[in-house]
Amino acid sequence: MTADHRPGRDFIVEVPAPAVEFNEVYRNFVGSAGYFVANNIYSRLVVFDTGSPAAYPDLAEHWEMAPDARTLRFQLNRHARWHDGEPVTAEDVAYTHLTALANGYHAASFLHDVRDIEVLGPHELRYVLRRPNAGFLAQLGNLVFAHVLPKHLYEGTDWATNPYNQQPVGSGPFRFVEHVPGERVVLEAWDGYWGPRPQIDRVILDIEPDLDEAVRKVADGRAHYLVQDVLTFPRLHLAEGSTTASVWRKRGPGIAVLSFNHTQDRWRDRRARAAVAHAVDRRRLVPLADPGWSEPYAHYLPRSVDWAFAEDATAPAHDPAEAVRLLDAAGITSSGRQPALRLAYMKTFTGHAGIAAAVAEDLRAVGLEVDVVGLDSPTWARQIGRDADFDLTISGGNMIPDPEITASRFETGGGRNHARLSDPEADACYAAARATTDRSRRGEHYRELQRVWARNVDWVPLFWYAAYYLRSDSFFGWPDQVGFRVPFWHWGRIRPVP
């Protein structure tokens, strides 16, 4: 990293993957530098932290859902401004989300229930849903998918080629300053921010593809933070003994899952899917676990979603003899030598490499040939998300604080449903859970959803992972330290320790 460094007022973040662009409403590159930049220069209506079931204000300072869960009304902060000085209005919000919906852009993954967005005034709007959805607010506040873009810079342009994808203008606490491809991205605190001004002057995202070196940079004080998914249990030893940084651990917001390519005839047969599930020996994953924090896991939601968790819903148990029998019955192995199955995982999630290797050994043990391939985020988006060029995948993702956010991955037609899963029984459970604002009744429907997944072997849970945050002791303001639950990727409230 060659950017001039100002001790105490700069916040240096180690990121393993370079930025492609910064408009994650348009398309998503998980774990890239652009993903983290977008989360700090743009705003959304509300913000969710996975550690809390409550929504917190961002652009919206007040909101309410109708009793029938079909409409939501939002009142925007009248002081919000874009980084070029223009006011943020309800027109910006409506334009961004309706355009994403109309074109099937990435944000549509979490906006699919929107029928219309009505602008009621300069700072007031109403979302009209196609059907009841009591969990819709969680979708709006989840990760990067529902940022708001400046209408005056995007309207009438092709989002694919709009220059502001590379020179972004947001309304968040930091503004974009510099991007040196493959090296760094620099942001600086924006004096015109309508919320609390950041107490750090700059954020410097340092692109460090050597994951071990990324850990060492924070551990020895050359940097201040390491983004999630770089530090995994096997790499923790690199942070031990640091005198400048500490590791904060918590149970992860989701689980690593094995998914089938449901467009392939072989996986339409439940026997074939059950065979794969029976082949999995989770004991192989024990060396990857951090006792008390992560574990091999056979349930379909994290236990931390206590109001919706189904203790009785588990994946088929390890039974290699039954796996062999079912593979033969389903015609997978009965016709002789089979083409090698392609098992893909995203390299950004470094813990998935060990899980994929273990699962591949389990499948080879029951007579299947398996090739394991790790893909970077852009390749994953193209080969897996767009082209369905795979047989099996290992993937992860948030499942809390509201199971509604899993619908984009597991419901028919979901925007992130790369497996092309379509299970009418599961879809009915999602619909029933959305239709009531009574959380206890929603929990009943989500418990039945997990039983459907287990019964039909729609996908296979593997590992409940931990989240590790290696962070400098010279800064304060993390989600576990402040009452306002800012997510791990948002650095607007980080400040130097006096």
TrEMBL record:
Alphabetical list of InterPro entries matching this protein: Peptide/Ni-bd (IPR030678), SBP_5 (IPR039424), SBP_5_dom (IPR000914)
Organism: Micromonospora qiuiae
Keyword entries, A-Z: Signal
Name of the protein in its database record: Peptide ABC transporter substrate-binding protein
Statement: the UniProt record of this protein carries the keyword Kinase: no
Solute-binding protein family domain span: 56-406
SUPFAM superfamilies per the UniProt record, alphabetical: Periplasmic binding protein-like II
Pfam families: SBP_bac_5 (PF00496)
Domain of life: Bacteria
